[in-house]
Amino acid sequence: MTAQRDDSAVLPGLEAPHPGPTGRPRTDFPEPRPLRGHGPARIIALCNQKGGVGKTTSTINLGAALAEYGRRVLAIDFDPQGALSAGLGVPTHDVPTIYDLLLGTIKNPAEAIIHTAVPNLDIIPANIDLSAAEVHLVNEVARETILARVLRKVSDQYDVVLIDCQPSLGLLTVNALTAAHGVLIPLECEFFALRGVALLVETIEKVKDRLNPAIELDGILATMFDARTLHSREVLERVVETFGDRVLETVIGRTVKFPDASVAGAPITTFAPEHAASDAYRQLARELISRGAVA
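RE: above sequence
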């Protein structure tokens, strides 16, 4: 008896790609090519008015991953809590900070730049003094563009500038959005984190209309994802349904390694370089490069 051909069989090498956490086929983002030169920088604001969603963690580890790929990165601590500075193990007191640059007590940003322990990754730190900035700047002419004028002086020296925004939609965040070419929204995979995203997107649109026509939404980054819980999976599914391709394929899982690395004052890519979380941020770096958000 002649064997019947099974047309439903999948030929070897043509298997359907296994879907990732977002439900879309996984993309193997290629290793980025080395750059022939550096600058001018593309400025990306990591922004979400809700606290505790992974803005600082993502700024640190995305910056470190991009630096591994040969990009010169400048991280701006734009939160008075100074968590970005502490997470990279740099001092925040008795040193020039972003506050001094905003107020003009220091004119040259190079005086406030600190080289971190990660090659190619520099930072301008912040401390609690930054909390007074909005009061001091409220009567300044063109107060929304002060940060943009500061970064203009150093952008030619870097490939990427990452701004770690405070959990607020106040004047400091508006300054960051006015200075930025793109916005990356870290979004915790938790129901209440969803509620403010629409307001944030509306704020970005207002800044685009009134202050910075060039700004783009580079993507929404799902963070603190726990595939074991139905809640995380449902929230991520809802985010993808609502925002579609604006949701990045890379998803950052929840792990105790992040707070451990923060205590050590190091990115997870150097604290635990073989960990899955390190691989996730390297994939995020490759995805942003593949999307053209980073050179």
